[in-house]
Every structure is written in C-alpha cells, then in structure tokens.
Amino acid sequence: MQTPNASVIPKRAVPPRIEDDAWARMRFRNLVDARCAPGMGIVQGTARFAPGEGEALHSHPIGETAHVLTGGGTVTLDGAQRSVEPGDTVVAPAGTVHGWQAGPAALEILYTFPADDFDAIEYRYVDP
C-alpha cells in the first residue's frame, strides 16, 4: 500500500457526478479516494437526494457507513424502514440491503467505504 501524503484536496479537484437512472436520482461528490488520496484505503464523499428522491435497494460486498448532514428522510436496512435526521449515522455491514429516500427536504449524507476506488465498489441493486 502506498504511504499517503498530508494534503488539502481543493473542491474543484473533485467535481460532482450525477446519477439519474432507474436505480438512483442523486448528486454525489467523492471527496477521498485513490485518485486524490492514494494509500488512505477509504472512499468518502457526499450524496444529495432532492426532496422525494432516493436510491433503490442495493447491497455491497463491503460495509458502508453514512452520516446524515442535512435534511431527513428514511433509510431501509434489511427490510426495516427507519427515519433519519441530521447527526444520525447509518451502519450497513457488507451484504446489508439498504436504500435511501429523502423526505420533503433534500437529504445529504457523508458516506464512507473501506476501499481505494469508488468505481471498483460493487453495487448489487435489488429488482423492484
């Protein structure tokens, strides 16, 4: 593993990406991954769901944590829906089926994966 260097990653270095398909409607920005912080071993970023929008049920072969920054809504974890609000942290161990739904206000989360590259994280969406 490469030894990471101390650094500041400017906002312009990590442009936002938009998902708009059958599985998710959101805007996200990967803040830390191998492209901008090699050797850290984490992928961390923010995802924003517009009011009423969300991400379909899915799982990953690795765990994920998500901290609610703003707004509110629901997260589904292995079939159980739970309300979330700013300050809540969601823990989804590897294989946990989960999905997001913003409430009447936009929902923004900070997500973290134990991985080097976001594009290598497998998303296993559940058929509706």
From TrEMBL:
Domain Cupin type-2: 47-105
Entry-linked InterPro entries: Cupin_2, RmlC-like_jellyroll, RmlC_Cupin_sf
SUPFAM superfamilies referenced in this protein's UniProt entry, alphabetically: RmlC-like cupins
Domain of life, source organism: Bacteria
Pfam families: Cupin_2
Designated name of the protein: Cupin domain-containing protein
Organism name: Psychromarinibacter sediminicola
Organism phylogeny: Bacteria, Pseudomonadati, Pseudomonadota, Alphaproteobacteria, Rhodobacterales
